[in-house]
Amino acid sequence: QKEVEQDPGPLSVPEGAIVSLNCTYSNSAFQYFMWYRQYSRKGPELLMYTYSSGNKEDGRFTAQVDKSSKYISLFIRDSQPSDSATYLCAMSAFDTGTASKLTFGTGTRLQVTL
Amino acid sequence: NAGVTQTPKFQVLKTGQSMTLQCAQDMNHNSMYWYRQDPGMGLRLIYYSASEGTTDKGEVPNGYNVSRLNKREFSLRLESAAPSQTSVYFCASSGGASGGWTQETQYFGPGTRLLVL
By CB neighbour count within 10 A (0-12 exposed, 13-18 middle, 19+ buried), where does A11 fall? Predict the structure, then answer.
């Protein structure tokens, strides 16, 4: 079983819909949680990050972490065709004094249609 | 700031040929990473360099070597390419061992698409 599980999709929604993207994980030591967006044939771009449990909002995007359930979510409100991309979750167990060691989900492909 | 740059963008090799993928960052980051991305497998860490002068193996290091040339540059070398190394390669960097989000958040380059025939 992978440490981080993510539904690969594709997820197709109409423009304006609320999108929910999710990851589950098994390592209870994970403390830092990130979402990356990757457009086709481009590199991953850091979208949001949260520490431990709770919510974080940035414009149309909300990241949510539930450590008790080992479950993280990314919500996109008022989705736009420009949101069409693959969304990767990533997480790490912070270890002072070393480089970051991120564990990635395999990504969910999102298609927002007109 | 260009961020993280990678060259070449695309390369075709024959089995057994060698090549070096170049990566540079202008964010004054201490740590740099090489990943490969394959369909259904996600991003897998090949090698990383926590700081200038150090390198360590990641999850899938076999068939690769790396060099941390200076603080800005981190190269990945395939000595004898195999079809199994056909993939998209990404370089990333992060702030390094200063703790917190500076250490944990990685910034990626645009990738190199490699085809080994």
Answer: middle
What is the tens place of the pLDDT at every residue in B16-72?
999 999 999 999 999 999 999 998 888 999 999 998 999 999 999 999 999 999 999
**Mutation for testing the A interface, residue in B25, B29, B34, B43 having most A CBs under 10 Å:** B43
Picking from B45, B101, B108, the nearest residue to A43 by CB comes out as: B108
* CB-based contact A88:A35 (threshold 8 Å): yes
Query: Cα(A58)–Cα(A24) distance, rounded to whole angstroms?
Result: 22
The number of C-alpha atoms within 13 Å of A27 and in the hemisphere containing its C-beta is 18
Pairing of strands B56-57, B42-49: antiparallel
Q: Is B47 on the interface with A (CB under 8 A)?
A: no
